[in-house]
Inverse folding.
């Protein structure tokens, strides 16, 4: 932090999700004690893909590692803020013995998971960290580090958000381990996959599609161009919309003009937030199956 602040002039913005507001307050006080102006961002903090650079001259972003596919143009410090607890996997050890297991986790648990994985390796359990940057990290929209060919996939995170995304990406069950409750369960993608394929089938009956892109790291110009080309080849008419933050009301209004929508800014929104809308709202990978009129090409998220 000291080296990051050295030589800075102007306003420093501190971004954080609500769960880290106490830490954000402490960071802001630290910055002000060094004679710099600090403001707390009141914008939502969904991940390192969305840094609101216009709010200041430099940014301190809490709770995430840098986004692998985008870098802010302004000086930015990412502080992952590791969980102060300890990840313990003794309750699931017997389930993993004799198998090749690939492990992924979230930013706040990564350092603790690295330690426990080393301990399990020393005990003869065949476990590896996912092939991401950094090793072991999974994002809600990026599971490319989960290489195929392993017997088990273990996702260590609170809730099922990351494990569900991983299971849809891999098209197989994964083990979801909650480090807070130390409970685990298998997450089967097929009940949700059936619903998503139904949405894809519905979209195939349409002709006009809205492609909704975002800003900063959620602005995916190359992806948008590729989807426009795919849509045209498939006989669909595409319209582009841009939004810094999406709301359900906005998406519902867009759907009044088209037959279905594709969200490129955050591919989790169609799955987690907009699945109950009357018309299909799809992730980019799902949209390709529509444009090529082939359900076997379904993929999630991209």
């Amino acid at each position: 932090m000291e080296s990051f602040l050295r030589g800075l002039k102007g306003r420093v913005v501190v971004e954080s999700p609500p769960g880290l507001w106490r830490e954000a307050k402490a960071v802001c006080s630290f910055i002000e004690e060094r004679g710099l102006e600090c403001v707390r961002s009141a914008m939502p903090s969904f991940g390192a893909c969305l840094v609101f650079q216009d709010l200041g001259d430099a940014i301190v972003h809490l709770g995430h590692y840098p986004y692998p596919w985008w870098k802010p143009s302004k000086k930015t410090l990412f502080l992952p803020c590791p969980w102060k607890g300890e990840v313990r996997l003794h309750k699931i050890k017997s389930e993993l013995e004799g198998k090749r297991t690939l492990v992924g986790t979230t930013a706040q648990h990564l350092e603790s998971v690295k330690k426990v994985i080393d301990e399990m390796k020393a005990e003869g359990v065949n476990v590896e960290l996912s092939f991401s940057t950094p090793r072991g990290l999974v994002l809600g929209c990026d599971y490319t580090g989960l290489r195929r060919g392993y017997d088990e996939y273990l996702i260590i995170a609170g809730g099922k958000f990351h494990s569900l995304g991983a299971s849809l990406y891999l098209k197989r069950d994964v083990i979801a381990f909650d480090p807070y409750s130390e409970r685990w369960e298998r997450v089967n993608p097929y009940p949700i996959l059936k619903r998503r394929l139904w949405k894809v089938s519905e979209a195939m009956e349409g002709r006009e599609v809205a492609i909704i892109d975002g800003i900063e790291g959620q602005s995916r110009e190359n992806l948008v161009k590729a989807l426009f080309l795919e849509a045209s080849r498939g006989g669909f008419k595409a319209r582009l919309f841009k939004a810094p933050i999406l709301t359900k009301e906005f998406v519902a209004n867009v759907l009044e003009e088209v037959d279905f929508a594709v969200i490129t800014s955050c591919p989790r929104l169609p799955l987690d937030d907009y699945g109950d809308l009357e018309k299909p709202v799809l992730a980019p990978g799902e949209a390709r199956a529509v444009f090529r009129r082939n359900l076997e090409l379904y993929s999630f998220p991209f």
Q: What stands out?
A: The first strand starts at residue 11 and ends at 15. The chain has three domains: 2-79, 93-188, 191-297.
